[in-house]
């Protein structure tokens, strides 16, 4: 193993179609309350039991961006991108398809949908992320655009 080599994969080590599945995380009331406090999003769908009871969900639902954040954490816990991510360039085609409720356990299924060199010689991967619950229902989908380090070239003078 190279000295000081990052844990994560370099651009050259990813192939279109490569995939992974994360561990799960069970959504708690504390997750929702903490996120509401951090984000300032106190929408009654998330924070008011009586209001949410009459909603399409029938109870409080987790914030969509809370699930995005937890999914990001689940992926990062796998260390696949640790030390090789140069920039998270954004997410595209994000869809929130099924509400995530307290007690639901979510996990992520990731697949490399595309990879290409940028005009400046960097490596860009498009990661398809599907967040699924314990019933294997897709709750969210998105494409993450991630700039990944290229493998360093060896110095031939050493």
Q: CATH topology, anyone?
A: Thiol Ester Dehydrase, Chain A
Strand content: 25-35%
Fraction in helix? 10-25%
How many domain units?
A: 1
Name of the CATH first level:
Alpha Beta
Report, as a whole number of angstroms, the end-to-end distance: 18 Å
Residue-averaged pLDDT: 94
C-alpha Rg (nearest Å): 19 Å
Based on the coordinates given, report the CATH architecture. Answer: Roll
The SSE order reads EEHHHHEEEE
Tell me the total number of β-strands: 6
Describe the structure.
The chain is an alpha+beta fold and 158 residues long. It has one domain (11-148): Roll (Thiol Ester Dehydrase, Chain A), CATH 3.10.129. The chain is built from 4 helices and 6 strands; from the N terminus they run ββααααββββ. Strands 1, 2, 3, 4, 5 and 6 form a 6-stranded antiparallel beta sheet that branches. The longest helix is centred in the middle third of the chain and has 14 residues, at 64-77. The mean pLDDT is 94.
Q: What's the quick description here?
A:
This protein is α+β, with helices and mostly antiparallel strands and 158 residues long. Helices cover 22% and strands 32% of the residues.
Keywords:
158 residues; Thiol Ester Dehydrase, Chain A; 22% helix; elongated
Topology:
Blueprint: E1 19-21, E2 25-26, H1 29-39, H2 44-47, H3 49-53, H4 64-77, E3 85-96, E4 105-117, E5 123-132, E6 138-148
